[in-house]
Amino acid sequence: MTNRQICVIDDNFTKMSNVSLPPECLLKPMNFPHKVLMGPGPSNCPPRVLGASALPMLGPLHPEFTMIMDEVKAGIKYIFQTNNEWTVCVSGSGLAAMETACLNLLEPCDTALVGINGFWGERFADMVHRQGIDVKTIHRPTGEVFTLEEIEEALKKHKPTLLFLTHGESSGSTLQPLEGVGTLCHKYNCLLLVDSVAACGGVPMFMDKWEIDCLYIGAQKVLSAPPGASPISFSKRAKEKVKKRVSPIRSFNFDMNHLANYWACDGDVRRYHHTGPISCIYGIREGLAVLAEQGLEESWKKHKHCAELLYEGLEKIGLELLVKDKSIRNPCVTAVKVPDGVDWKAVIVYARKTYRVEIGAGLGALAGKVWRIGLMGYNCTPDNVRLVLRALEESLRMTRTAKL
Ligand SMILES: Cc1ncc(COP(=O)(O)O)c(C=O)c1O
């Protein structure tokens, strides 16, 4: 608020009041740059998704809107490959879905086992710790994944009630193999929670077949929709765990009992819980429709193909990928090592200014050590691979020259 004050006379001209001037920045048109977002998210939204997000408002319980919610629910079940009743969107970004899983599935008598091989495991462990809940961790360096043997050993040792794994660890660009993990967890009476924010839709995911108990994603990655509503699904086992809690869920906003009712998952009449991000739900509906029309298998193939083009191109430029083992690379996000003596920030700035291409910086322990290139949903095309390679190659050449 500006300090300049003016005197105005109220409607009845009876007394004077002090009102500050409107901020000058809001009296000018918004300065909006167009960019090709080739970082780890958000992705650009296709015009169809943007068009849907700009549709007029409906009420959160209007039948036309609840029908759209039902379509979103069907779309989530498709991309997760699940028949879970408790399948909804949480209002908020991917982090809100992570918090929903934490708050509903854990209570003070529980122990969570968290797989940390990058930034997102750390984040979840922090979240659990803040709830005063016992957290045990297993570690792999960022850029590596956990084996079934390591997981089993930790399950035996810590006897957790929940195991958290990141499917697509976007800080290290790995793809955690999930087959067999759910069965293993259930053998030890433990639930499996998976973060697939930076992978699902672009790589195979079989929530039911892989016995995953809770799975969540964000809207702004492979779905290429605006952030603000995040899909999440709970298995029968996970739902039972929530229903049998001895302590109340420490959040009204993220209480799955309320959300399941609002998303018509409990067979009861829908009741108002909160006003959801209506425009984001329109957007996510269209993002899911794009994926449904394309077909999941085609989407998985497209992501794999474009990622391979990217790996080939990066090697030609002489750049090294963080993840050596091809079988555990996440095609949606690729971490590229910053060569010695290169100013990583100058490269990002050059690509942004010259090509309007946004290349992601490293996150957490890898800040300044890697760049991260995203190929997700609408942005995952061979043309974009060529564009980002050209931008990167020229940025490297020009920023090196500028330093000499
Ligand atoms: C693996 C992973 N989990 C969780 C998140 C958090 O999602 P959001 O930024 O939408 O809150 C991200 C974001 O990049 C992510 O990559």
From TrEMBL:
Catalytic reaction(s) noted: glyoxylate + L-alanine = glycine + pyruvate
Top EC category: transferase
Aminotransferase class V domain location: 61-380
Keywords attached to this entry: Aminotransferase, Pyridoxal phosphate, Transferase
SUPFAM superfamilies named in the record: PLP-dependent transferases
Residue positions binding substrate: 372
The protein's name: Alanine--glyoxylate aminotransferase
Species of origin: Potamilus streckersoni
Lineage: Eukaryota, Metazoa, Spiralia, Lophotrochozoa, Mollusca
